[in-house]
Design brief:
The structure holds two protein chains of two kinds. By secondary structure, chain A is of the alpha/beta class. Chain A has helices at residues 44-51, 74-77, 95-105, 110-123, 138-149, 168-180, 194-200, 218-226, 239-247, 270-283, 298-306; strands at 6-15, 18-28, 33-38, 59-64, 67-68, 80-83, 156-160, 186-191, 203-208, 211-217, 229-234, 253-259, 262-267, 288-293. Chain A contains eleven helices and 14 strands. Chain B starts with a helix and ends with a helix. Classes of the chains: A alpha/beta, B mainly alpha.
């Protein structure tokens, strides 16, 4: 069996008094498109800097493609593509010159380098751009950043906030490109944009204040949250309030909100709720119009775990 | 050192494409042209100043080729070395602050290769520019004065280059050690003025690289000189500087 593409074991990073990463455990399997989700300042960039060899952990282990990053050889780095949150380029180079420079660092031969540079410039929408990088917009730099991260056809692509500087069309193109790599390249990308993760990721980890608060497949994570959320609609004025009063205090009720004939509930025991709610409605002498397990979105999960709205 | 050739190639292209091609080479050619002219005009200038003040008599010997060479070396020691400090201050810290180092160093490019390529490109630029400036100075001196001995100038410039190479290495070290370009420049200027002061102290001048400065004067005048200790200690300091710069940058978090 292949080694995990990324494996973090008790990874901790401290900057003086600040604990940026707190005993992070995470496994990313090969071929996955993995979203690393968290608010600004949650520790995503710090984790990516450690994974890319730019920083060292205070304690714990970080492995990429089965190798400890603190001892990663050039052979390991040759299999990784990396895009930082704000990519820096030499302003006097053109986009093609930068890709050629990056390709030479990877030791690519001329023919391979030419072919890949052509394809990646086309993909990045920079094929016809001859101006120097110093005159590029932030979006153009971001697209060039993604292109340079792919010049070596990496086994593992690590992207830090790859869509944050892009307009909606550029964002869609990048996400489509990321999605197209599924199964061939492991993509690990950090973001605070939930819609991006929902759109392309197979799995996600949510980081909050340096700790992983959830890590699972997106479907599993949302269904786990959905299983305890109910919406109940009842006919009759004031009926919802009366039923709510009857249900309040039962052991399986975690949260309950009654508005205009609708009860929204979070429960800890769904079978008990399915038995006792209709009984309470019948006892109140009103009619049940709708009883539904509400499907949670990733945003619901994120807000529940992190405790506040994200962008 | 993986990636060294590719990164060194990038450094040379950067020199060719940016202001770096013009600053130090421009200064050296400028001083090569103007030093002999200033040496030739200085007695006349001093004489005209003395004549404007009644009762003041200043005897100035006629200028020679050695005066032209001395003026050239003086300009190298003052202006060009300070330019080396200022341009060298941002050589690594600039790449860190602009984010360009991050993209390069997450590829198969070792930090040692990064630092050594930086040093080698600067040293090459300085050597070529110095050779050019020296040839221009020698040509101008030969046109203006009789008796120019090129080998004396070459010896003095060679000793100057040794110190200038050391300064390049020291500046790269400071630039790798400090995140701020200003801090690196400040430390570099401190190093420059400290070595300048120490060159006036006999034991330091005899046994360490700071002695290259007084030995340059002896070389120009054709006097017997003892350059062995300054040269050997200068080479040793360069090697030590390279090792320290690589070691410091290797431990830095980017």
């Amino acid at each position: 069996m292949n080694a995990p593409a990324i494996e973090l074991l008790g990874l901790t990073k401290r900057f003086g008094e600040t604990l940026a990463l707190d005993r992070v455990d995470l496994v990313v399997q090969p071929g996955q498109v993995f979203g690393f989700l968290g608010r600004n300042g949650a520790g995503k960039t710090t984790a990516l800097r450690i994974l890319s060899g730019l920083a060292r952990p205070t304690s714990g282990t970080a492995r990429v493609l089965g190798h400890d990053v603190t001892h990663a050889t050039d052979a390991v780095r040759a299999q990784i593509g990396f895009l930082p949150d704000v990519p820096g380029f030499y302003p006097w180079m053109t986009a093609r010159e930068y890709l050629e420079f990056a390709g030479r660092l990877f030791g690519l031969d001329r023919a391979t380098l030419d072919a890949r540079a052509d394809a990646l410039l086309e993909m990045a929408g920079l094929a016809s751009v001859t101006t120097r990088v110093g005159g590029f917009s932030r979006g153009m730099k971001q697209r060039l950043g993604i292109a340079q991260a792919l010049i070596n056809a990496p086994s593992l692509l690590m992207l830090d906030e790859p869509t944050s500087a892009l307009d909606p069309i550029g964002r869609r193109e990048v996400l489509e490109m990321v999605g197209s790599l599924r199964g061939r390249t492991t993509v690990f990308f950090s973001t605070h944009i939930l819609a991006d993760v929902e759109r392309v990721c197979d799995s996600v980890a949510i980081l909050e204040r340096g700790r992983i608060v959830a890590s699972a497949g997106i479907a599993e994570l949302t269904s786990r949250a959905s299983a305890d959320r109910l919406v109940v609609e009842i006919d009759g004025d004031g009926a919802a309030t009366a039923v709510a009063a009857a249900l309040t205090g039962r052991a399986w009720v975690k949260a309950l909100e009654a508005t205009d004939g609708t009860l929204r509930m979070t429960v800890s025991d769904l079978p008990a709720a399915q038995r006792e709610i209709p009984a309470a409605i019948t006892a109140a002498g009103v009619a049940l119009r709708r009883f539904e397990v509400e499907e949670a979105s990733l945003e619901d999960v994120f807000v529940e775990l992190v405790g506040g709205p994200a962008s | 050192m993986t990636g060294f050739d590719a990164f060194l190639g990038k450094e040379f292209t950067e020199i060719r494409r940016t202001w770096r091609l013009w600053v130090i080479p421009g200064m050296l050619v400028f001083f090569g042209v103007t030093s002999p002219i200033i040496a030739a005009l200085t007695p006349s200038l001093v004489k005209s100043m003395a004549e404007s003040q009644p009762g003041v008599v200043i005897q100035v010997p006629p200028p020679t080729a050695v005066d032209a060479f001395a003026q050239f070396i003086k300009n190298l020691n003052q202006f060009v070395l300070i330019a080396v400090v200022i341009t060298g201050a941002g050589v690594v810290s600039g790449e860190r602050s602009s984010g360009t180092a991050i993209l390069a160093l997450t590829k198969p490019l070792s930090r040692g290769a990064f630092v050594v390529a930086k040093m080698l490109s600067q040293v090459t630029l300085l050597a070529v520019a110095t050779a050019l400036g020296t040839v221009v100075c020698l040509a101008m001196t030969t046109v203006i004065f009789d008796g120019a001995v090129g080998s004396r100038l070459a010896m003095a410039v060679g000793l100057w280059l040794l110190y200038a190479f050391l300064l390049v290495v020291v500046m790269t070290l400071f630039s790798a050690a400090f995140r701020s370009r200003g801090a690196a420049a400040g430390a570099g200027l401190g190093f420059y003025f400290l070595t300048l002061l120490l060159s006036a102290w006999g034991p330091a001048a005899r046994y360490t690289f700071v002695g290259t400065m007084p030995v340059m004067r002896d070389a120009l005048l054709g006097e017997p000189m003892s350059a062995a200790w300054p040269v050997v200690s200068g080479v040793a300091a360069i090697v030590l500087g390279v090792v320290m710069a690589v070691g410091i940058f290797d431990r830095k978090e980017l």
